[in-house]
Amino acid sequence: MSNRIAAILIAALSISLPHIATAAEEGIIRLEGDRIQKERKHLRIPAVNGMQAIKCDFHMHTVFTDGHVWPNVRVQEAWRDGLDAFAFTEHAEYAPYQADVKRDPGRSYELAKGGAAEHNLTLVKGIEITRNTPPGHFNAIFIKDASKFPADRKEELDQVSVDEAIAQDAFLFWNHPGWKAKEIPGSYEWIPFVEKLHQEKKLHGIEVANGHGIHTKAIDWALERNLTIIGNTDVHNLISHEYKGHRTMTLVFAKDRSAEAIREALVAGRTVAWAGKYLIGREDNAKGLFEAAVKVAPVHHEATDRNNAKRKFREVTNDSDLVFEMKARGLPKIVLNPGSTQLVSFPAEWTEVEWQVTNVFVGTEKRLKVKVSLP
Amino acid sequence: MSNRIAAILIAALSISLPHIATAAEEGIIRLEGDRIQKERKHLRIPAVNGMQAIKCDFHMHTVFTDGHVWPNVRVQEAWRDGLDAFAFTEHAEYAPYQADVKRDPGRSYELAKGGAAEHNLTLVKGIEITRNTPPGHFNAIFIKDASKFPADRKEELDQVSVDEAIAQDAFLFWNHPGWKAKEIPGSYEWIPFVEKLHQEKKLHGIEVANGHGIHTKAIDWALERNLTIIGNTDVHNLISHEYKGHRTMTLVFAKDRSAEAIREALVAGRTVAWAGKYLIGREDNAKGLFEAAVKVAPVHHEATDRNNAKRKFREVTNDSDLVFEMKARGLPKIVLNPGSTQLVSFPAEWTEVEWQVTNVFVGTEKRLKVKVSLP
Amino acid sequence: MSNRIAAILIAALSISLPHIATAAEEGIIRLEGDRIQKERKHLRIPAVNGMQAIKCDFHMHTVFTDGHVWPNVRVQEAWRDGLDAFAFTEHAEYAPYQADVKRDPGRSYELAKGGAAEHNLTLVKGIEITRNTPPGHFNAIFIKDASKFPADRKEELDQVSVDEAIAQDAFLFWNHPGWKAKEIPGSYEWIPFVEKLHQEKKLHGIEVANGHGIHTKAIDWALERNLTIIGNTDVHNLISHEYKGHRTMTLVFAKDRSAEAIREALVAGRTVAWAGKYLIGREDNAKGLFEAAVKVAPVHHEATDRNNAKRKFREVTNDSDLVFEMKARGLPKIVLNPGSTQLVSFPAEWTEVEWQVTNVFVGTEKRLKVKVSLP
Amino acid sequence: MSNRIAAILIAALSISLPHIATAAEEGIIRLEGDRIQKERKHLRIPAVNGMQAIKCDFHMHTVFTDGHVWPNVRVQEAWRDGLDAFAFTEHAEYAPYQADVKRDPGRSYELAKGGAAEHNLTLVKGIEITRNTPPGHFNAIFIKDASKFPADRKEELDQVSVDEAIAQDAFLFWNHPGWKAKEIPGSYEWIPFVEKLHQEKKLHGIEVANGHGIHTKAIDWALERNLTIIGNTDVHNLISHEYKGHRTMTLVFAKDRSAEAIREALVAGRTVAWAGKYLIGREDNAKGLFEAAVKVAPVHHEATDRNNAKRKFREVTNDSDLVFEMKARGLPKIVLNPGSTQLVSFPAEWTEVEWQVTNVFVGTEKRLKVKVSLP
């Protein structure tokens, strides 16, 4: 009896057998259950004050500079990871594979834009302005033409390069400000070159989270000068070989996922960087995100503790994919995992609780504090 | 230098170090990161027509009959698994541990009711009426007093037992109708005893899913006689040693999770049984659930295929924790996993799509069909 | 066309379809792929000096005292977790469920011994001697008769209780010596009662790891007085609700898994306690275990680094299910995960490497150091 | 108090804190616990008759033809996946990225050979001879010079291309013989072109497993003509985006992992292809592998079943990373997962058992049968 007949019978019976080898073709077994299927996993980040949380990564490389993948892989990764928007930022001044790959820092955008549109992803034109450190590297996004940027690193071109970005009306941010903190003493400082950019209003943001590193000094730099807080992967390798959980990204609170809306929100500073369990943002943004994600439910139970004190039980819920580590005087510490609820018994007389949210940075040395009234 | 000083310094720095051994006490390392913390994982099932999906398991055992756990474990499991309501259904007529454990089929309810209230879970009083097969077993839930049920299986007590349930105003359902299909020929039939119960309006539901088995013949029995479709675990062992994913359960579409609202919904037949990837329900309930969970987004992209035909790309999303396997003539089969989105390119001229949802049973031999208009 | 015919055809074709609902019985779908099957996962711990690593947990509770499960669950858990031997240690003096469960601290052994034999597990008779703290609790294993131990905690029975253990030729160890370190000041000390036991050679071991806590002060106590180092779960709840990875246990290096061989090894002190990523043991045992698990392979590659220094590449492998965190001056830190290999480039002139193994305690403040010659 | 001081204190205390953000540098948090570390996972396949199981994938692509990655990614993947040997097989006749990437089917080998050596991987020179279907594609491995192969697909070059492989003393195998079975009727046949190759002894193997497909007709073709059975990924995309478990590969039973030893084994036909749960091989190889992996332990327990028949309990163990699905008349079916043991109770009088191993193909329609004597 042939597999073909079995296949017909199975089909006739309309039995769906998804996680297995199916025998639907004569002489072929397809191991569909062993294959990772193409799908986008939902990344649940709540809207804040009516603004959607647009998930963005504005720093990545491909074989067109020193990345390890063809641009289509970045589209695939972005879609699977639940990103909404991204930018290629090939190095303008560095192209180690040029013996094999034609040099063109704008090429990855061109090759990926069709795939991005098909996957409903917003692809923003970008470039990495790769100067010696200091001053280090800058990303220009929302540029017009990657080919206009100088292709070498002579020091006198530092200013030329960033001015080209400004001429193209780019949004400019300083990358990984502390990346050579150990190797180049003094490199992790707010240097005159950067201060000058800031004075001339040419610098718009700063990457406080880059890959698996958080550059905490940069948080206060951003807050003091009203620079937008950014987090990116700077990925060269595969996301799936680098991150156990979500990739590092910037949550941009925007009207929608269009390039225009994202830019408006970046300029307005409505962002929170997300790296590992950490969130880093301006206090209003961080607080808004916490309040949108974490809810205290009404009392569902009352009881008396060992010391005969009355306690009221409420559920504390986090329906987002973020983590929150919360302490309040008089309560045990809570690690509120993604998509989970915990029971908390509050002293009966409390009408509000003040959480210190220890994994949310709102300053270099400052964690978020939030008062929540108890229903 | 002592660990205590380090602990103070770490605390002073307000660095949170969650996934590790902390050294906060002199001479103690606490492996908090290796411990599974007490938390309730969200189980995302959408509301249907304004009715919440209340997650229920009305069939479970403890050491008070032939289960392997103390009643508090069932509370713990229910809470972690995201259930909203449950019932102990100890055997009235069977107590294999009675040499060690005092016989009382109502005892598990008494021992667990405090914990259930603390965990915001609705605990319903129940009992399993354990007769020989046929007729087999019945569960009575919303009973008043478990001690009133006969404690032995003499055949003449079959009717007495179910009548006691009715006298207590219970909701009565037939358990696992096909559980001895192989061992007792003819046992998996709609027998006169059950027909009589039905005629006298004493039978209200039928367990089409029991643990890892779906008794498909019972689907049509339920539909033809307007019995409520039920799915339960009938767990004796640990949930965590039995289920790779979610446990088998009944989704009850009710106003809220109160016992009254659940009963109203059960009587009205607003349920879908959920076992493995399968959903089993009356067509209106199954369709409502599908439509609440699966959304087709507006066109985000258009393209021309190899045959020069125009295609429109839309995202098909499933924000629930359910799975849907969907076929439509002219489209590839889709397995839409929990919390995920897939790209579908539809022929440009289509204004609607008719999905056959092959993992959703709306009859013994019938799968759900749904027409969805394309935005 | 019936499912039965399909089933016959599928069987005839000898197509195995394991991870799915099979339709092998008329009207029944069995969700075998969603069920966790009964199997024992291999736990790979190498033999040391010709002695097998017998995986033991000598501290657990059931409903016969204050545990949450029937004894058969402990057999099931032990087998699945890869244990070789275990003991029930019900409290002699504490039985909170006695209104429902007949009081008998030896009953769990009796109920489980058949299942243990069937599962090829060595079940050792034990009891917990539950005194007030201080002196705290002691476990007596290899006892003869649990019923002989006093059932109340009057202070004058402290000595009687442990003497009963000795009279029964038990192996006696002090449990969780620091468990009330915070609540009862001075309780986490080497007290006269215990010193007296030690002097009289009545105390044979000490539990340095209990559940998710490591009581580091006890390590030096054990080493100074030649007490056997023990690690146990002290589980009351479900293992699967408490441990993300392996449970806490004692690795006993014995001739085989028989009770006699285990006892001989315990008396000889050939143990390492394993809790989370930590290993705790006498230096000879810890070193033996490290050397059996971690291997440095011969040079497979040579290269010159940036500073023009020659490096030799070797694989460092860990074929066990243990973790080793290793530092050596001049090399990057290594976290050597279970069943994995890492590449290490050593300076070409090195003939040996001295690892500091930071997750292996060989004293309260001392980590294992091992010199390994480089092949 | 600065993070730097904390870092020094933490270091001084020699507390290892691996899974967290460390604060070892002023103003930098490194999320090491969120990073996937570079390590090679052990893939446990037993030696067979003194020959090691060398894990090989002889079919993969990079950006130099139509793959999505730079060659270094293939080294990284191979090492992480536990492969021992691999080959790039760029298309000689197809280079869709040539507008951007210099055309050279031998370039990926050149770029990766250093990394392969560093990672102790055997890299074999290969090429894909990409003809129209039929005859379809062939892989030539152990070639000398990829640049010598014709770069276009004119039919008259079919023979020239394979002859070039033979001239270079390559090992030649037919790829995915059924890959266009549906699209090109008659394409999945043993065609004259291939028969001629076979007659002239130019064809040495056949790819029965390619990615997620098993081409079962090819099994008998291989057995009848003494061709070596091969399984490969033919990966273009990322392994980590395609495979839930292990990648498809060929297990080559060779003296060691050197290119010479692998070739000797290939020529001798000592291989088993491994795809999903399936193993496909010549009976001697398949049987050897089964017997090396699956062991029946001596009787550890005896009991009497319900029918008063004596049963002997033995452990059936599988210490490999393979799966075996085993049936024997009179025993329940076993799915023996990687690194696991199951209890089997055999009728007491049995002295041997004959397993049918339903996931091991030793012919197009034939599964492995093995008699095992019971200790």
TrEMBL record, chains A, B, C, D:
InterPro entries: PHP_domain (IPR052018), Pol/His_phosphatase_N (IPR003141), Pol/histidinol_Pase-like (IPR016195)
Highest taxon of the lineage: Bacteria
Position of the signal peptide: 1-23
Domain Polymerase/histidinol phosphatase N-terminal residues, every copy: 56-133
Keyword vocabulary terms for this entry: Signal
Protein name from the UniProt record: Sb-PDE family phosphodiesterase
